[in-house]
Amino acid sequence: MIIILKQNANQAKVEKLKEDLIRRGFKLHLSQGTEASLIGLIGDTSSIHEDWLKAIDVVEDVKRIREPYKKASRSMHPEDSVIDVCGTKIGGGNFQVIAGPCSIETREQITEVALDVKRSGAHLLRGGAFKPRTSPYAFQGLHEQGLELLLDAKRASGLPVVTEIMSTEHLPLFEDVDVIQVGARNMQNFELLKELGKLNKPILLKRGLANTLDELLMSAEYILAGGNENVILCERGIRTFETSTRNTLEISAIPVLKQKTHLPVIVDPSHASGIRSLVEPLSLAAIAAGANGLIIEVHNNPEKALCDGAQSLTPPMFDDLMRKINRSTEFFRSL
Description:
Elements: E1 2-5, H1 11-23, E2 27-32, E3 37-42, H2 50-54, E4 59-63, E5 83-85, E6 88-90, E7 96-100, H3 107-120, E8 124-126, H4 144-157, E9 161-165, E10 179-182, H5 190-196, E11 203-206, H6 213-225, E12 231-235, H7 253-260, E13 265-267, H8 269-273, H9 276-289, E14 293-297, H10 315-334
Keywords: Transferase
Domain DAHP synthase ferredoxin-like: 1-67
GO biological process, one term: aromatic amino acid family biosynthetic process
C-alpha cells in the first residue's frame, strides 16, 4: 500500500502518522520525490481500510500495490534510483560502460586490459576471480589470487571493480570490491541475496537463464528488503529454442523493467550472444531500448583466453565500439 502525502503537509502530523503505522506492525519505505512524497507500507495491509487513511488531513490519496515486490516497484519509488559507485553514477540519465575480461588470468593481462578500457572511456572494470562453469573440468578462476590481481589493476587504473561472488563464505574476501556481481546461476540463491542485503555496497544482479522479469525483481527484493538499496539489474539473455546464439537477448526486457521498477537496468551483450561480431549491434540496440549501461568482455588476446574468448572484444575493437556508444548515447539524450 502507498500513502501519497499532500504537498507541504504538516511534518508533526506526518510523524504521528508514521508512528501509528509502525505501532500497527508495518515497516515503512519513504520516498521523497519532486512532485510527491510517499509512505510505502510493507506488511499485511488487508486490515487497513483506505477510508481511514484518506480521512487524515496530511494524506492526499491511498493506493494498493498488486506487485509482490514492494521496494523494487516503481509504484513505491516513482523516480529512477541512481547508484553511486565511487563517484560514478549509474541510473537516471547516467549511462556507464563496464569492461574487462571474463576471467582474470595474470597480473599483466588484467592490468593491461584495465588501462586499455579506461583509455577508451570505460568507467568500471570487470574481471572474474570465481567462475561458475558448466563443466567441472573447465577453468574455474584464480579465486583469492584473482581478487588480489583485480585489486592491483584497480590501483593501477583507478577504475572501480566489478566481480562475481558465488558463496556467502567468500564475503570477507570482497570487502574492497566496489560492485559485487550475482551471476545468472545464483539469481535465486536466496541465502546469498539475504546476506548481500546486509551490506552497504552496490550489487549487480543478473537475470537467470530461464527466469521471468518478475522473478528477477523478487530476487532484487531480497536484497532491498535487507536494507541494501544499491541494486543494479542486468539483462544478459535467456535460454530459448534458438541455437544460432549462446542465449537470446530479450531487448524488450529493458523497457518493461523500466516500467516496473526504479532500479537501473544494464545489458550484457557478450553473454547474450556469445559471438564477438554481435556485441556491437546488441550494444547499440540496448542503448536505443533505454538501458542505463553495458557490461562488455574485453581481452587482450581472445584466441588464448581461458574463458569465453569467442565473445570477447580486443582492445582496438572495444575502442571503436566506445566511439559508437558515445555517439549513440548523445543522440538519444538529445531526443
